[in-house]
Amino acid sequence: MNTVDVSVCANCGKEGTDINNICNKFKQVKYCNASCKKKHRSKHKKECEEHIRLDAERAAKLHDEKLFKQPPSEHGDCQICFVRLPSLTTGYKYNTCCGKVICSGCIYAPVYDNQGNKIAKKKCVFCRVPYHSTKKEAVERLMKRVDAGDAQAMYELGCCYRDGVHGFSRNYEKALELWHRAGELGYSRAHCNIGYCYIDGKEVAFDEEMAVHYYELAAIRGNERARHNLGLVEEKKGDMNRAMRHFMIAVRGGCAGSLDKIKRLYSNGSVTKEDYMKALQTYQEYLGEIKSDQRDKAAAAKEENRYY
Fold first, then answer.
1. What three-state secondary structure class fits 293?
2. How far is CA 6 from CA 24, 43, 78, 226, 284, in A?
3. Mean pLDDT confidence for 269-275
4. What pLDDT, on the 0 to 100 scale, is given for residue 6?
5. What residue spans of the chain are helical by DSSP H?
6. Which 3 state secondary structure label does DSSP give 233?
7. CA 192 to CA 8: how far, in whole Å?
8. Residue 254 CB neighbour total at 10 angstroms
């Protein structure tokens, strides 16, 4: 492709081009006046469209490289035992006293004072502040975390407004506002919830394109539910290659739903046995990374391990 000297008019070659007369689409070719621009249009059109096509291909490639890169775990490791946190919300708890996320095993671990004596009253194992005794106290702590700029606290408060619980009236507009703030601070579940709103058509008009946009923002940051939803969108389009790439990344993140989906796709012949076996192996690796004796004991006790 020929390179055009942008310092001269692309039509007549005159120097001193008019900054207001440039190619409308690619904006890299200049003209000395509107007349030259009009005369050159038919000659430049094909080259211009080729530039635009190549730019679009490059942008799509860069986007896919970012989108399909295996992201880090959404919550990382438990800040007490340093074992990877599970993807299920029943496997960890957000503490409004200190804003830390602690796994279900460590929540019920015994807490000791500086002399090594076991503390009878239940306290946060991270900051050792007594757990709240009333819902009012829990909400007050949550609001303090929101005021401190805590993204997860904003997300949790948004859920309160969405569901109309813990003394908050149902208010989807307020919920979306809080989720947008949390998402901008990097909390992926907030962006995933916004995506749900566009799919459900709640408080915002149904818009699958916008839903996909927010799912992608969440998936890139490690949200396995958003990743699973992107797989469903690609499956609906008929692109099983992209769908499977999303499902496999979601499985690596601990999404049992994606594993079940791959199993069904294998049953109906849409994917190979090797694909399904790879998904099983990947999920087993995930389970091995989140396993701990304390978590097993907490799960067996069937205690409530999530509250505000």
1. helix
2. 14, 16, 57, 45, 58
3. 96
4. 55
5. 34-67, 104-107, 135-147, 151-163, 172-184, 188-200, 208-220, 224-237, 240-252, 256-267, 273-290, 293-301
6. helix
7. 49
8. 23
Give the tokens for residue 18: 């008019």
Residue 303 scores a pLDDT above 50: no
Residue 75: strand, helix, or coil: coil
Q: Are strands 101-103 and 92-94 parallel, antiparallel or unpaired?
A: antiparallel
Q: Are 225 and 213 in contact (CB under 8 A)?
A: no
Please state, in angstroms and rounded to a whole number, the distance separating the CA atoms of residues 259 and 284.
Answer: 11
Contact residues for 72 (Cβ-Cβ < 8 A; gap 6+): 222
Per-residue confidence at 111, pLDDT binned at 50, 70, 90? low
CATH code assigned to 132-301: 1.25.40.10
Q: How far apart are CA 72 and CA 229, in angstroms?
A: 18
Three-class SS state of 178: helix
The pTM (predicted TM-score) of the whole model is 0.79
Rounded CA separation 52/28 (Å): 11
CB distance 255 to 227 below 8 Å? yes
Query: Rg of the chain over CA atoms, in angstroms?
Result: 27
Residue type, 219: A
What φ, ψ does residue 41 adopt, rounded to 5°? Answer: -55, -45
In terms of Cα–Cα distance, which of 132, 210, 146, 221 is closest to 181? 146
Q: Nearest CA to 219 among 3, 47, 55, 70?
A: 70
Please tell me the distance from the alpha carbon of residue 216 to that of residue 180, in angstroms, as a whole number: 14
